[in-house]
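We read letters as residues; the fold follows as tokens. Both lines appear below.
***
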Amino acid sequence: MKAGTKGSSRIEPVVFHTINTIFMLFVVTVTLYPFLQTLAVSFNDGSDTLAGGIYLWPRAWTLENYRAVFISGTIYHAAFISVSRTIISTVLGVFLTTMLAYALAQPQYIFRKKIGLLFILTMYFNAGLIPNYFLIKNMGLLHNFMVYILPSLVSAFNLIIMRTYIRGLPFSLTESAKIDGAGEFRIFWKIIFPLCTPVLATVALFIAVGSWNAWFDTFLYASSDLKLSTLQYEMMKMLGSIMSANNDPSMLAGNQNNQVQSLVTPASMRSAITIVTAVPILFVYPFLQKYFVVGLNLGSVKE
């Protein structure tokens, strides 16, 4: 009886790891296939794409889809605006969110619960699109680059994650620093901020992805100003042209510039646009991935 129990205990881990490996391979395949298929279509000739059957490898290689995307002179400036807003929003957002979270994590701050409640309420209640528009207008942010920065400087969700993480840090660290004569800002900058590296990476990734993918604020507040147009908004205009074309096999970008001679279909253009907007932010994730899971877990769970 003991021998049978011992044999089954040896088999169970093998069976579990085998099933777990098969399941995870299935999840990885399901997750990666849409991206790889889109990548293959983006490098495939548009007229050949109409025949279907493009899976993981282009059947007729071409770069015309990407040439059609970048043929517009506004794309490069729009990309510069998107990169600028992403970097500035991430740096300022992380720094200010951490400072506010540090203040709200102090047990001696008597207003910490009331202010925290106000931020939480913003996650459930919103004034609406029209009041927000008039607020932006009255602040003088219409057709202003700062409209991409100021309204989203501090997120309630990121604040909660950051505050919970800081609460989990040893309170004796700040107490000993105060005894040595350190001020609040010095404690924050020299002790708290360096210890928050995992959650900083998590919040930075959230802010960066949100800023990079944003296009609706451009549509609302700066749609008529080409100097403030973002890459995502330009891509959305291209996608709008594709949808309105209703599978018209004419060259969409070529209607604006006759330099493009080859046929580019809506499906191939859509795939190229998707890759152009997705790939840059994907290169950021590997540098933050080792901190991401740790920071999210520690920042969302309080023992």
About this structure: Residues 249-262, 299-303 have pLDDT under 50 and may be disordered.
